[in-house]
Amino acid sequence: MTANSAVNPQELNEWVNEVRVLATEAGRIEIADQYIGHLLSSSPQGNDGAWPAEPVRDLIETINSRDLENGLEIQVINSRGVTSRGTYDGGSQERDLANRYKSYADIVQDMWPSTGAMLNRLADNYMNHATMEDLSAGLSEDLGH
Question: Per the count of CB atoms within 10 A, which of 5, 53, 81, 107 is most buried?
Fold first, then answer.
């Protein structure tokens, strides 16, 4: 999946099912689900403007694997890369991300509850990071750095 391509639900489901069968046979389903989650993190937005696309949400609900969700969450966080900010800027970048994922969760949670919960966990994670950045900025300001 690339950011500009639609997700073909049939191909996605067939591929994931095949990978999961092989991983189960090899005794590696947990790590396979994590890596499937990593790959699903590149999903485009859905037709409703929420992320991930509807076929990915359907897959998350059907598979119901915490390992897959963890892999997706970890990849989202890691794909952000390095950030920079002014000494006193605080967590505004992280608050923006928290609000984005919370808005996605609000859109999807009724039809895709596991996906909504995952998006809320991402929002909470970014809000916690925002709080840490706010505290760091406040401490720097107090110390006059």
Answer: 53
* Residue 99, token pair as written in the block: 């609000």
Euclidean distance between CA atoms 96 and 18, whole angstroms: 37
User: Counting beta carbons within 10 angstroms of the beta carbon of residue 104, is it exposed (0 to 12), middle (13 to 18) or buried (19 or more)?
Assistant: buried
Percent of the chain with pLDDT strictly greater than 90: 79
pTM equals 0.87
Contact 58, 10 (CB under 8 A): no
Spatial CA neighbour of 20 closest among 7, 39, 5:
39
By the 10 Å C-beta count (0-12 exposed, 13-18 middle, 19+ buried), 78 is classed as exposed
